[in-house]
Design a protein that fits this description.
single chain; 13 helices; mainly alpha; globular
Length: 286
């Protein structure tokens, strides 16, 4: 037998154990699912009210009701996957340091970052994934069956959407694991949720709304090229809602290529931060 563990098998084992744990308290699991679905329904209702007063989000942006619902659905999908697989583990990292249980993680014959990142899966968060998928299918159906200028969706576009969805999740994961790794230096990082909430507020809106005025362009530049979270949802949603055509938005294709570069840089940087943080760890007994 090989001494190297199968990471896919380990991940499936983590997911199975987490599901068993959640099913042990089924009432709590059901309430969490209901709470998540209720939030998405209220969020959807809010934007339905907005579109009763306007036809687009921003002038000449192309974000009509159904195009924006693709954006909103993509946001829900990304958030649900991040909250299900990464958030509970990142939040527990400081506890591992405080209690000394990180010692046991370091002794396991598996990559420590992988073990820290995927030990727990919060299955109730995937309720929003189902809601996002449902809204995405509905919005695409409305756009492709429109009487005027129906949207043409090709298999290649769907594959690109899934690819950039993965890129966006990887960027958010990189930010999250870097934030959680600072617990080794800070002792107890209680600001993770607060800071995460602050920065994720920016990618929940189309990037076109920032392209106005000094502060708007400043935020757009900072959260696109310095901390590239605006591309997380904007690129896959724009690609699916209105395919990136060079004749229409030539800069968007450049931004799509930049997203690939940003993903690689983010993953490499987060790996470096995590590794450097572990070098500063002195265990619970020292």
């Amino acid at each position: 037998m090989s001494d190297q563990p199968s990471y896919l098998r380990v991940l499936l084992t983590f997911a199975r154990n987490s599901l068993i744990r959640d099913m042990t308290f089924r009432a709590n699991f059901l309430l969490q699912c209901i709470s998540s679905v209720s939030w998405t329904l209220m969020n959807l209702g809010f934007y339905i009210i907005i579109f009763q007063h306007t036809s687009t989000i921003g002038r000449d942006t192309g974000w009509g009701p159904h195009e924006f619902f693709i954006f909103l659905a993509t946001t829900w999908i990304v958030n649900s996957l991040v909250q299900a697989f990464f958030m509970p583990n990142a939040n527990e990292f400081s506890e591992l340091i405080r209690t000394g249980n990180l010692d046991f993680a370091l002794l396991k014959p598996i990559d420590t970052q992988f073990l820290i990142s995927f030990t727990k899966v919060e299955w109730s968060s995937l309720a929003n994934f189902g809601m996002g998928t449902g809204l995405l299918v509905y919005a695409l159906w409305k756009l492709t069956t429109a009487s005027e200028h129906p949207l043409q969706i090709h298999t290649f576009v769907i594959l690109l959407y899934l690819f950039y969805l993965g890129c966006g999740i990887a960027i958010l994961y990189s930010v999250m694991i870097s934030l959680s790794a600072t617990s080794i230096w800070l002792g107890r990082n209680q600001t993770l949720y607060n800071f995460w909430f602050y920065i994720t507020n920016f990618y929940r809106h189309p990037m076109e709304i920032y392209q106005r005025g000094f502060w708007g362009w400043g935020l757009w530049g900072a959260f696109t090229f310095v901390l590239p979270i605006l591309v997380v949802v904007n690129i896959p949603a724009r690609l699916l809602a209105e395919p990136l055509r060079p004749t229409q938005d030539p800069w968007l294709w450049g931004l799509a290529l930049f997203t690939c570069f940003a993903t690689l840089v983010s993953l490499s940087a987060s790996r470096w931060v995590f590794t450097r943080a572990l070098l500063s760890y002195r265990s619970a007994s020292s």
